Every structure is written in C-alpha cells, then in structure tokens.
Amino acid sequence: MHLTSLHSLLMNWESLFVVPELITLSFFAVLFQVFVFDVGGKDWKFYDWSQITTVVTFGKYDPELMCFAHSKGARVVLKGDTSVKKMVDPVVRAAWINQQVDLAKRQYMDGINLDIEQHVMYSSAEYYALTNLVKEATEAFHKEIPGSQVTFDVPWTPDYIDRCYNYSGITHACDFIFVMSYDEQSERWSNCIVGANAPYNRTLTGYNNYIRLGINPKKLVMGVPWYGYDYTCLSLSMTHVCSFAKIPFGGPPCSDAAGRQVPYKIIMKQINNSLSGILWDQEEKAPYFEYKDSHGALHQVWFDNPRSISLKAAFVKERGLRGIGMWNANCLDYSNGSAAREQTQAMWEALNPE
Ligand SMILES: *[C@@H]1O[C@H](CO)[C@@H](O)[C@H](O)[C@H]1NC(C)=O
Ligand SMILES: *[C@@H]1O[C@H](CO)[C@@H](O)[C@H](O)[C@H]1NC(C)=O
Ligand SMILES: *[C@@H]1O[C@H](CO)[C@@H](O)[C@H](O)[C@H]1NC(C)=O
Ligand SMILES: *[C@@H]1O[C@H](CO)[C@@H](O)[C@H](O)[C@H]1NC(C)=O
User: Fold this and answer.
1) Which residues cross the membrane (predicted)?
2) Distance 335 CA to ligand 2 centre (A)
3) What's the pTM?
4) Which of 117, 184, 284, 342 is catalytic?
C-alpha cells in the first residue's frame, strides 16, 4: 500500500501533531469530507473516487476495497455497533474498544463509525456510558492507529424521540458526527398524509438544532438518502394527496413504517411506467411520482435526486459544515449503459454543486 495522494499526506500530517481541537478544525477545514457508506459487493469499483474521503464498510471485509481506497487517499473504517446496556460496565467497554482497535489494525483500517441507534433515556446509566464510549474509543483509536478517524451517527435532529444522548459531549469527544438527514417523517404524521423522506426545511432545521447546542458546524457531516419510500395510498386525490395506512411508531398514529424503502436505481427504472412522471413538491423541495401496481393499487413514491440533493449540498457549503455523505453508495445503477452512467454520475456530482 503506497499512500501517495494529497489526502493521504494530510491524513499523515494530522497524526504527526497533537494540536488543540480548534486549530485542527480550522487547519483541516480544507479537507471537505465525502463520507460514503458501502454495504458490500463490488460496486465500489465504480464510485467517484475523486471525491471520497472515507468509506464506512457495512458489508463483509474486502481487502481489495481497502487497498484500492488507500491508493486513492481515502480512509476505510469499521462499522461499530454494540449494546449500550453492556457498555455501562467500564471493563466491558474497554474490552469492546480493544477488540475494535485490534480488528481495525489487523485489517489495516483507519478508524470506526459508531452506529448505535438505541433507545437511551436522559441521565440514565446508558446516557453517560454512551458519551464515555465515544470518548474512550476515540482516544484508543487515535493512540493506536495514528491518523485514524472516529465518527458517530446521529438522527436528523437532536430532539428525535427516544434517543436522548449527550450530543454535545459525544460530538466533542469524536472527530465529527454524521447526521442521518432522512427518515424524517418517522415521528411526524398525525394525519397519515405521505410526504418527503428528507424535506429541505426540516433537514436544515435539524442542523440549526445541533448548532444551537453549541456544536461547531465543522463537526457536522450531512447524510443524504440515496433511497426513497414507496407508499400504497388508501386514497389518492387529484391534487396528489396520498393518505396511507396507520402503523404506530412510538406515539403518533402514522409513520414511514407504512412505506417501503427503495433504492434510487429501482425508482429511476419505475418512472417510465408511472402515471404522473416526476413531480416536484415546492414546499418540501423533493421529487415524487405515482403509479398503479399489478393489483390496481395506487402508490406514491418520494425520493431524492440531483435537484433536491444539490439544494442541500449548497447549504452544507453555505453553512460551513464539514462535509456530506450518503446512505448508501450502493443504491445507484453502476451498470455500463450510457443512461445508467449519466444518471449515476449526476448523483455523485450533486454532492459538490458549484
Ligand atoms: C455532556 O458531556 C460533557 C463531556 O463529557 C459534559 O461536560 C457535560 O456535562 C454533559 N452534559 C450533560 C447535559 O450531561
Ligand atoms: C424511459 O423513456 C425514455 C424516453 O422514452 C428513454 O430514453 C429511457 O431509456 C427510458 N428509461 C427506462 C429505464 O426504460
Ligand atoms: C422554510 O424556511 C423558510 C426560512 O426559514 C421559511 O421562510 C419558509 O416559510 C419555510 N417553508 C416551509 C414550507 O416551512
Ligand atoms: C463499458 O462500455 C464501454 C463501451 O460502451 C467499453 O469501452 C468499456 O470497456 C465498458 N466497461 C466495462 C467496465 O464493462
């Protein structure tokens, strides 16, 4: 493995100096992050490596991916998930962290993305254990693997129901947090009317809420969805109001649990058979379409495309966030047809609008 590109040079510089957070943040702000989740297979061969700074591997370990990423100056990091309840015990916590560091070293990896999406109550033992876990994991990784990166995944807003974490403590403790700006409807609906997965205003409100907690924008990476939701409408009006079945989630009567997640590549294949063609919702700043399935049921599909994503990516730049990323990179069509290639390239390019 020869680390040759500018990214790897900077990556190594970072590890040479132990500097206070503020200095690191301003100096390395030049390093705009493009944070990519990969769920396995060989799609990664067709990613836009001119942009990628980190690949989080949710799939099976692939040494070929690791070497390729390093040749492009990108980091490859582990997925970290564990029971927060077990992490309350400092001995168990230290053992788990050691295991992750050892695994990362054995696989020549460059850090870990902690994806712990568990219910935690304010001021509970788990609440403190989680902040300590992030702090101790970051210290261990930075010490054992110089230049490594430790990040933590958070919901689209800090007041998300049932995940009462010490967000400022967690953010301060790690390199940056990845904000999952999607599934934003899961707690909203009271009237069971279908809407966007990641509406523009709602997405921005989430960042303002994190920043209001005292979190530096340079420690926030925006996550955009490369998937949408397909809902079966109980009724669909001429003005495109789709009402759907009630499935409870937490408290409110409706949720996106009534919808089915669909990758962008599948959505794009369905559009020619839609009743509506691509429509645009002015308020939510998101595209959608409608179709009738083989049983005659009407569906509404909401998703993100280059138009909606580039609006959010422009906010990332304006607000001075650390970068952007997506769940997940495998959702695009990497086949070799010219239409597929154009469609896929447009999605990658939307991450970095002019
Ligand atoms: C959050 O964590 C930080 C750092 O550990 C700590 O100083 C702060 O008191 C915590 N805040 C709350 C509300 O628990
Ligand atoms: C959809 O229709 C357009 C125009 O007829 C065509 O160029 C395109 O290839 C079709 N796409 C799919 C996925 O069939
Ligand atoms: C979105 O936010 C802007 C500015 O905060 C506001 O003017 C506008 O009314 C909002 N739109 C919706 C649909 O909430
Ligand atoms: C993709 O198609 C082009 C011609 O359209 C061909 O030159 C190229 O080798 C193909 N690439 C792959 C990876 O199949």
Assistant:
1) 16-37
2) 15
3) 0.89
4) 117
Strand (E) positions, the chain?
A: 33-38, 54-57, 75-80, 111-114, 149-155, 176-180, 220-225, 227-232, 235-236, 242-243, 260-263, 279-281, 286-292, 298-302, 323-327
Q: Cα of 272 to ligand 2 centre, how many Å?
A: 6
Amino acid at position 11, single letter: M
Residue 165 Cα to ligand 3 midpoint, Å, equals 28
DSSP β-ladder status, 227-232 and 298-302:
antiparallel
Question: What are the pLDDT digits (tens) for 100-123?
Answer: 999 999 999 999 999 999 999 999
* Domain residue spans of the chain: 3-226+304-349
The bound ligand whose nearest atom lies closest to the alpha carbon of 335 is 4
What value, to the nearest 5°, has the Cα angle with vertex 28 and ends 23 and 29?
Answer: 100
User: What CA–CA distance (Å, rounded) separates 174 from 114?
Assistant: 10
117 is catalytic: yes
Contact 96, 136 (CB under 8 A): no
Q: Which atom of ligand 2 is nearest to the CA of 272?
A: 1
Residue of higher predicted confidence among 40 and 192: 40
User: Has domain 3-226+304-349 been given CATH number 3.20.20.80?
Assistant: yes
Pocket test for ligand 2, best of 264, 266, 267, 272 (most atoms within 8 A of CB): 272
Three-class secondary structure of residue 32 per DSSP: coil
Report which of residues 60 and 13 the model is more confident about.
60
Closest CA to 103 of 144, 131, 132: 144
